[in-house]
Design a protein that fits this description.
Layout (H helix, E strand, L loop, with lengths): L6 E11 L2 E7 L7 E3 L2 E3 L6 H13 L1 E3 L3 E9 L5 E9 L2 E3 L7 E7 L12 H9 L5 E5 L8 E4 L1
Parallel strand pairs: 1-7, 6-10
Antiparallel strand pairs: 1-2, 1-4, 2-3, 2-9, 5-8, 6-7, 10-11
């Protein structure tokens, strides 16, 4: 039996300065609307870290220095493939903040995140970024007709 499975590799980064975090209000026409952290897909030929630096720059205008991997978010799609989001944190960056076609970006107080109009799944994703004892966020369901179950480990 082969151990290889199809996987979609993505990233997300919590850029922060003190008690503020950089958030993006995604436009509905780009799918997955609401407030989230910047990030995107890993392109062929780039490392995961290179991909998060590129994505944050494309979406915010900021260039990250030394982003740190802090966790993983993942689930199995209905076709059996795995969707993996590598979670990064970074407080060292340069550049001028600007919006992109993905949506506006702005600094928000970390404590105010739960009260914002969040993208689907971001409430538990914030926990994976902010709570030191959580390094993996998984979604699973035994039967496609059932709701997703959340596991934070």
């Amino acid at each position: 039996m082969s151990r290889k499975i199809q996987a979609e590799l993505t990233n997300m980064c919590m850029v922060y300065r003190g008690d503020e975090v950089l958030v993006q209000r995604r436009r509905p026409e780009h799918g997955w609307p609401g407030v989230t952290f910047p990030g995107g897909h890993v392109e062929p030929g780039e490392t995961i870290t290179q991909s998060v630096i590129r994505e944050v720059y494309e979406e915010t205008g900021l260039t990250l220095s030394h982003p740190r991997l802090c966790g993983v978010k993942n689930w199995i799609e209905d076709d059996g493939s795995r969707y993996i989001v590598f979670l990064y944190k970074c407080d060292t960056f340069s550049g001028v903040l600007r919006a992109s076609e993905e949506g506006e970006v702005f600094w928000a107080n970390r404590a105010g995140l739960p009260g914002m109009n969040l993208s689907s799944g971001m409430e538990e994703t914030f926990r994976a970024f902010l709570e030191e004892d959580i390094s993996e966020l998984s979604y699973y369901r035994g039967d496609p007709s059932h709701d997703w179950q959340i596991v934070l480990e």
